[in-house]
Amino acid sequence: MLAKAQLGYNYAQYDLGVAAALNYAYTDAETVKGTPAVHLNFTYNHTPFLNYIAEVQIGRLAGGDSLLTLSGRQFKNNYTAVSFRGQIQAGEFIDYENRTIFNALKNIYLSAGIGVMYNNMSEINRTSLYIPDFTSPGRNTSSEVFIPMKLGYEFKVFNSYDEPSMKVDLGYQYNYVLGDQLDGIKAGVRKDMYMQFVVGIKFAIGGFTSYRKAITK
Amino acid sequence: MKKIYGVFILTLLLFSGCKQDEAIIPSTLQNTNLLGKWYLKQLEIIPVDDPSLSTTIEDFTDKDFFEFKTGNAATYSSTLYARVFEGYYSANSLTNPQTLSFKSGDLLLKYNIDSLDPLSELVVYETVTTKEAGITTSVRYQYTYNRLP
């Protein structure tokens, strides 16, 4: 009870957030294109620096060029993904109090988890324009498990009670797909993946409690 | 310390995986026995219904050839077209008879392989069927290529 009264120690256990992402899919298609996605997430903050995130992604992946590549592979995938990640921030490990640099570094985080994505090819070209009989087989719709891994920085914005009421998230997310149908084409030996540059914002929505040390400097 | 190793491994994984498979042309569309230059020596025009009416053309030059290269690249030179076409070939071994196709822009040649001796002779053919006044006529065009010009 004493801790709850101390300014700078309190935080919300629950956040709601939204983010925009720029996707790049590395698949069997020979060229890579940037495409957008929107993320909606709910975060349970076990501590201010140890977070569990449930997230829905709605977006598009695209790649290839039917005219300019030898294989002719080209796709647009309107996908939906749900994932769950555990996230650990440096502040959980380091003593940042009264140390300016460590205080800045405390918001660096790594996270990893698991998810499922639902792929739906809105456009696909499987036939080479140049090599007769060269076609790339695959499925127009599929669902695949993926492993999201993310590295980022979470800027915490404090309210007048020194509680982190809003967070701005900058991250790079690597999504390793345990399958080869992200582009609707099954070829080669490598599985597909897509990476994302993410900018998001999270709002504290309740469940206030205290941390063992001051969250602010 | 174990936590630090875990973080290190995760970071390595994050930045190590952005690689793609190259678009490898299936081996069933390649035939290494074809690689090299083949000069057109003979064209036989054979009416399927009456082969006795066949005609043979042999006045070809060293500008009538196919050249098959690695990666399915190919060159087709023809005095009939009076030009050289750069494109790609495929030799589909999943079909019987095996097909040999060449594509360059809008030009698409599709043949069946009749016989192939990698050291000396390649014989390909196409059968063209036309229907005129209710009568169907099929003609087999058979091309014989040699290694030597």
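qc> The first strand of chain B starts at residue 36 and ends at 47.
qc> done
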